Amino acid sequence: GYCPNVVKNEVSGLLFDPSSVKDATEQLWRMIENTSLRKKMGDNLQHFVLENYSEDVVIEKLISVYQLND
Questions:
Q1: Could you tell me if 14 and 34 are in contact, meaning their C-beta atoms sit under 8 angstroms apart?
Q2: Distance between CA atoms of 2 and 6, rounded to whole angstroms?
């Protein structure tokens, strides 16, 4: 499976039918052959992860969870 809240098709990754080797192969070749697409999606994913899963963000989320349960 994949993480739908992280991987957005054509934005932060390429989705494919997991039961189709042909589809997976086509998407892998797109990534191999298209440097600008790889760079764009890598940059988008890095930005998303840093905004949503950095140490500071995760700590703040954990603190808010524990404060709600007091």
A1: no
A2: 8
